[in-house]
């Protein structure tokens, strides 16, 4: 029998990359906030991203 390896845990940036889109650095904190929250509204999402990176622009993408 072969050697068992531990399953790989994808990084926050690797998760959406696996689905195909390009991941810009600014999108990682947004993805983390949405993933960690529970049905967050726009204001709560923006606040969560600000907590991670300091300042965000509403037009960032």
Tally of DSSP helical segments: 3
Low-confidence segments, given as residue ranges, are none
Number of strands: 0
Q: What would you call the shape?
A: globular
Provide mean pLDDT, rounded: 74
Secondary-structure-based class equals mainly alpha
Largest sheet: none
Beta-strand fraction estimate: under 5%
Radius of gyration: 15 Å
As a percent range, the share of helical residues equals: 40-55%
Succession of helices and strands: HHH
Q: Distance between the terminal alpha carbons, to the nearest Å?
A: 47 Å
Task: Explain the layout of strands and helices.
Layout: H1 14-19, H2 27-36, H3 42-53
Helix pairs in contact: 2-3
Structural overview:
The protein is mostly helical and 61 residues long. It has a domain at 22-51. The protein is 46% helix and 0% strand. It contains three helices and no strands. It has helices spanning 14-19, 27-36, 42-53. The longest helix has 12 residues, at 42-53. The protein is globular and about 45 Å long. The model has no long low-confidence stretch (mean pLDDT 74).
For the structure shown, list the relevant keywords.
61 residues; mainly alpha
Question: What's the quick description here?
Answer:
With 61 residues, the chain is mostly helical.
């Amino acid at each position: 029998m072969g050697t068992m390896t531990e399953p790989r845990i994808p990084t926050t940036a690797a998760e959406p990359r696996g689905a195909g889109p390009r991941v810009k650095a600014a999108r990682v904190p947004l993805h983390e906030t949405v993933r960690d929250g529970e049905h967050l509204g726009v204001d709560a999402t923006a606040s969560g991203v600000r907590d991670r990176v300091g300042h965000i622009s509403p037009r960032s993408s």
